[in-house]
């Protein structure tokens, strides 16, 4: 007997693998820093970044903790956490671009919610055009080992984000996590490749949960200080330089 | 013999009282947080806020430190600090709305620079229409003693910021500094009074230079934690909640 697989179903009705749904909190990074939001963190990722701060949503050994949920069930939980007042929903991961999120976005929009998605840009989806905000954070070579950025895929993400006749497309930004000079050079290259897209530089946390219990706060702030000076040295003025607010506030705590 | 007074001259040629010009640094607060900028801090203020972090640009006893400068001289210094690459110039104070800044803005625009101005909104100027960004930060009653907000003046600031046929007007936001529940209530009132304007809540620093040498960082972060919870309790979702990045990074240090 043939047992239907998830991949056999039309994409809109396939279930979404969810690692966690939490909030209401504030977005801690990027151009939406400080905005109240509920996070939907999907499970599964095509990358294995050295300094990943959410390996529990990435590594297969956590798969049993990820719930296959319908868009309806996810949206019901989002509404409960938002106390039924429309807000910004942040789709994160893992890599949320793997999941069939289109119907969740449609459902939320109909109720007045807005959607931001964060992805490394290695998987492009036509439904990116439906988002309100898209953050593309391609990873510097040092973060993903020998795996180089697949530029044609990032190009495709940018292309889908331009929108369609029906969907005007999200406000798109690039976010590069920076630990050192090599990462910084990569960010400069990305900026030169996509000159029209808003760029955000984010200082990395070298003490994520799998490395240390306690975040090295002064180390993170020192790196921010260095990064600001580095950017000034190049007279790179049309960029935004930010820390992760949640790391400053809550360290490595999960679910905030 | 009649000696001409500054106030006799046409506004465009009057000199500007400058407390300090510094940068390149990053904007530490509000909707432009993280953006590289040069600050022009003018001297003189119509307010005496309890927790003012730049009394050296406010109190008359510092007046001898303020330089009367022409727009040309200020812009030359801005260009030097920006290494002759256009960037965001932040006009701050004191209350910069007291000063004749119009020709400085015109001059900078002609060279590709953009301008943000920060003011409490107690003095309105038609040239606000020329700005690229305007941050209005009316002060909660606890911060200015018994002096209540002059709403008709804030209304006029908002009105000028709508622009004219020649100038499309700045991106305007409201920023309220919050220490306690009373300040928070004031912010809620301001938001209800100006529903169309982006609102930013900023946690106050109870350890500014004239109170303490060292900033009470954990106190500031605890207040941020409280403020986020407070906003969530009200399901206030269309607001931005931020700390002062420069306080986290550099404490009470001046000129950064």
From TrEMBL, chains A, B:
Q: Which domain of life is it from?
A: Bacteria
Binding locations of S-adenosyl-L-methionine: 94, 137-139
Which residues make up the binding site for substrate?
26-28, 41, 92
Q: Which reaction does it catalyse?
A: 6-carboxy-5,6,7,8-tetrahydropterin + H(+) = 7-carboxy-7-carbaguanine + NH4(+)
CC cofactor note: Binds 1 [4Fe-4S] cluster. The cluster is coordinated with 3 cysteines and an exchangeable S-adenosyl-L-methionine.
Would the keyword Metal-binding be found if you checked this record's keyword annotation?
yes
User: Locate the Radical SAM core domain: which residues?
Assistant: 32-252
Query: What is the stated purpose of this protein?
Result: Catalyzes the complex heterocyclic radical-mediated conversion of 6-carboxy-5,6,7,8-tetrahydropterin (CPH4) to 7-carboxy-7-deazaguanine (CDG), a step common to the biosynthetic pathways of all 7-deazapurine-containing compounds.
Give the gene that encodes this protein. exsE_2
Pathway the protein takes part in: Purine metabolism; 7-cyano-7-deazaguanine biosynthesis
Q: Single GO molecular-function term?
A: magnesium ion binding
What the entry lists under PROSITE patterns is as follows:
RADICAL_SAM
Organism for this UniProt entry: Ktedonospora formicarum
Describe the protein's quaternary organization and the partners it interacts with: Homodimer.
Supply the EC number(s).
4.3.99.3
- Family indicated by similarity: Belongs to the radical SAM superfamily. 7-carboxy-7-deazaguanine synthase family.
Positions contributing to [4Fe-4S] cluster binding: 45, 49, 52
Q: What class of enzyme is it?
A: lyase
Query: Sorted alphabetically, which NCBIfam families does this protein's record hold?
Result: Bsubt_queE
The UniProt keywords, alphabetically, are: 4Fe-4S, Iron, Iron-sulfur, Lyase, Magnesium, Metal-binding, Queuosine biosynthesis, S-adenosyl-L-methionine
Q: Which cofactor does it need?
A: [4Fe-4S] cluster; Mg(2+); S-adenosyl-L-methionine
Q: Where does Mg(2+) bind?
A: 54
Note the Gene3D superfamilies from the entry. Answer: Aldolase class I
**Gene Ontology annotations of biological process type:** tRNA queuosine(34) biosynthetic process
Q: What is this protein called?
A: 7-carboxy-7-deazaguanine synthase
